[in-house]
Amino acid sequence: METGRPYSRLLLRLERLNALSADDRQRIADLPFKLVNYPAGRDVVSHGYSPSQCTLVLDGFLCGHKPASGSRRQITSFFVAGDIADLATLHLPAVDYSITTVGPAVVAFVPHAALKEAANGSTALAQAFWRETLMQAAISQEWIVNLGRRDAFARIAHIVCELTVRLQASGLARDLSFAMPWTQMDVADACGISNVHANRVIQDLRHLGLVDWDSRRLKIRDWNSLTRLGDFNDDYLHYRSNTNRISSLASQNVVDADPIRTTPSTPVRGVTGAAKTDG
């Protein structure tokens, strides 16, 4: 099967635990993908929308979010290349969150009918889609712990570690470095803190020598210390094949940092889009 096709990242994702047969791989290759390029900050799916298609991320980042405290939002998930951001809509009548681009992104829309036909024709594919839904639920559970029981430093460190592992599972972030178009507001909305607090934590992570982080790119300089700070264990992601590769990279790139201060300098404090755009 060729690389660089719309279905390539989806196949890589579905086969991360169990290989698919040649027939099942062909079923995925034959899906009718509709590619759409989106600019930064564009709503792809709106809360309450009843879609007839699923959204596969091909490049860039999407985020799922809900309104909170009037004008503020809570980011509830990030989606990376290979993720189907709204897979549950195969069996649910409407989306209960909005999905928005974080930086420019490329997505592929796949009709529900085509996905259901592929799943109905293959037990292995049906199980693979079901497994994807369960894994997204596991990530959501970890985010609840992150917001409820970790301080601001650990919250941000944990999300960075999680995204690194997830990107490596899609063949990205091979050198613990990746494009990161987040704004400070995105970080704050994902971690339930203020923009000012998010800025202070990011500055401290840089000062500690754990990351190089600018407006376009993030590079992890000390993976082991960052995972300790973020209380990060990737068991919930089920990416066993990735862990050894990241550990190997980290062992070659460890920076001797000072003991990590995990207490934030300030206490932690704790819009939805228009209709779905079909391009």
How would you describe this structure in keywords?
disordered C terminus, 9 helices, 279 residues, three-stranded antiparallel beta sheet, five-stranded antiparallel beta sheet, alpha+beta
List the SSEs and their pairings.
Layout: H1 6-14, H2 22-29, E1 34-38, E2 43-45, E3 53-68, E4 72-79, E5 98-111, H3 112-120, H4 123-149, H5 152-169, E6 177-179, H6 184-191, H7 195-207, E7 211-213, E8 217-220, H8 223-229, H9 240-253
Antiparallel strand pairs: 1-5, 2-5, 3-4, 3-5, 6-8, 7-8
- Helix and strand run: HHEEEEEHHHEHHEEHH
Shape: globular
User: Total number of helical segments?
Assistant: 9
Which blocks of ≥5 consecutive residues have pLDDT under 50?
255-279
Q: How helix-rich are the residues, as a percent range?
A: 40-55%
The number of E-state strands comes to 8
Termini Cα gap: 28 Å
- How can the largest sheet be summarized? 5 strands, antiparallel
Strand content: 15-25%
Assign the structural class, choosing from mainly alpha, mainly beta, alpha/beta, alpha+beta, or little secondary structure: alpha+beta
Report the mean per-residue pLDDT as an integer: 87
Alpha-carbon Rg, integer:
19 Å
Write up what this structure looks like.
- With 279 residues, this protein is of the alpha+beta class.
- The chain is built from nine helices and eight strands.
- The strands form two sheets. Strands 1, 2, 3, 4 and 5 form a five-stranded antiparallel beta sheet that branches. It has a three-stranded antiparallel beta sheet with strand order 6-8-7.
- Helix 3 packs across helix 4, helix 5 crosses helix 7 and helix 6 packs across helix 7.
- The longest helix has 27 residues.
- 37% of the residues are buried.
- The C terminus is likely disordered.
